[in-house]
Amino acid sequence: MSSLEISNLRKSYGSVEVLKDINLSAESGEFVALVGPSGCGKSTLLSIIAGLESITSGEVRIEDKLVNDEAPKDRDIAMVFQSYALYPTMTVRENMTFGMECRNVPKTEQAEAIDRVAELLQIGHLLDRKPGQLSGGQRQRVAMGRALVRDPKLFLFDEPLSNLDAKLRIEMRTEIKKLHKNVGKTMVYVTHDQIEAMTLATRIAVMHKGVLQQYDTPNAIYETPANLFVAGFMGSPNMNFLSGRVVSTGGKASVRLDGTGITLPLDGVRCGAPADGQEVILGVRPEHFSPAHEQRAERKGKVSVKVPVAIDMEEPTGAETILMTRIGGHEAIIVCEPDEAPRPGETMEFAIDMAKVSLFDPKSEARL
Is the CATH number 3.40.50.300 carried by domain 2-225? Predict the structure, then answer.
């Protein structure tokens, strides 16, 4: 196993800076997800770790060894690509042994590695087939198998599931999680899908416009996002943002929502001490609303505040119903159980779980 350390890394193409002062580390055996929208620099960062891209400044260390100037073949990494990159004229067995053949690995060692990986990925029955005879999920298993026979220090995944359909993505996500548990190696995984990042990673690096926005555990990023971008990007449906102003009465702070008569006491909100009159953005996730039935709120032990909500539209998804609503003049999305969902055109009181609320500065966009 090996660690990964990236320090003060910058990457520019001419005058365009695509990575700006990136600092992150991964301990041996960690699963790190690089997540963000298209063009945020996550794939470029992965290519730099692999040695496929040069760096402008900074350091990349694998197992405490500086690898800035080392060729990809000397870094002892294995990469799984989005496109599978399998040789169409070779069988699965030949695809998986090709790299070992190039390194003159003895045939007995090749056979042992193939048997071990084929059993791990359950592809033993596919070894004599060619890629054209395989499904998308089977091809992805073969691509992972080709990486696993290397037994490298680092595994790098570049959006490996983006070409699969929704059902197969979920199945392969489970397979990758099992794989990480079984091999115990350090893995760096690039995805634009925040659900993949949340379910797979031990730590997530959220990137935007070449800047590392937050690097933390999935739970910490979801519960305490560092800024408005992280709060809006992580989570589905997105977090609701309600603008308002802090008001203090008798030493207790509240937020009065703009354009409404609604005031939300900040009791239970995990934040600093905002100044009286300070403009803020209050963030509430859709699942942190609940129909304001006192018995239900008491049963869950919530510190909650009731607000009137106008229902514009509903989207039933089976297990839950997504409501498009208005709180005063603010648009909001609420998730609730189907049998508790009001009908479009109705107004209903919902309780906000204030312990889950986040406050942000509208100018700096940072969490308060």
Answer: yes
Contact by Cβ (8 Å): 205, 24: yes
Q: Which residues contact 160 (CB under 8 A, 6 or more apart)?
A: 80, 81, 82, 140, 143, 144, 172, 176, 189
Query: Can you tell me the distance from the alpha carbon of 37 to that of 191, in angstroms, rounded to the nearest whole number?
Result: 9
pTM: 0.90
Q: What would the pLDDT profile of 300-346 be if each residue is shown by its tens digit?
A: 556 688 899 999 999 999 989 999 999 988 999 999 999 888 999 99
For the chain, the first-to-last Cα distance in angstroms comes to 38
Residues of the chain with CATH 2.40.50.140: 240-360
- 103's tokens: 């390194």
CA 158 to chain centroid: 13
Rounded mean pLDDT, 210-238: 96
**Backbone region of residue 113 per phi and psi (left: phi > 0; alpha: psi in -120 to 50; beta: other values):** alpha
315-324 long-range contacts (CB < 8 A, ≥24 apart) are 316/341, 322/237, 322/286
Residue environment code for 254-293, b if the CB has 16+ CB neighbours within 10 A, otherwise e: bbebeebebebebeebebeebeeebebbbbbbbebbbbbe
Q: What is the pLDDT of residue 160?
A: 86
Q: Whole-angstrom Cα distance, residue 285 to residue 240?
A: 6
User: Per DSSP, what are the bridge partners of residue 245?
Assistant: 256, 279
State mean pLDDT over 183-191: 92
Architecture of the domain whose range is 240-360: Beta Barrel (2.40)
